[in-house]
Amino acid sequence: MAAIVGVIQGNGKFPQKVLLRHNKVIMNHAMTTTTFSLQGHRVVRNLGVVRGITVRSRSVIGTFGASIQTIFGGNISLLTELCEHAREEAYNKMWEHALQMGANAVIGLRYDATEVMQGVSEVLCYGTAVVVEVSPDSPSSAAQSNPAATR
Question: pTM of this prediction?
Answer without folding.
Answer: 0.70
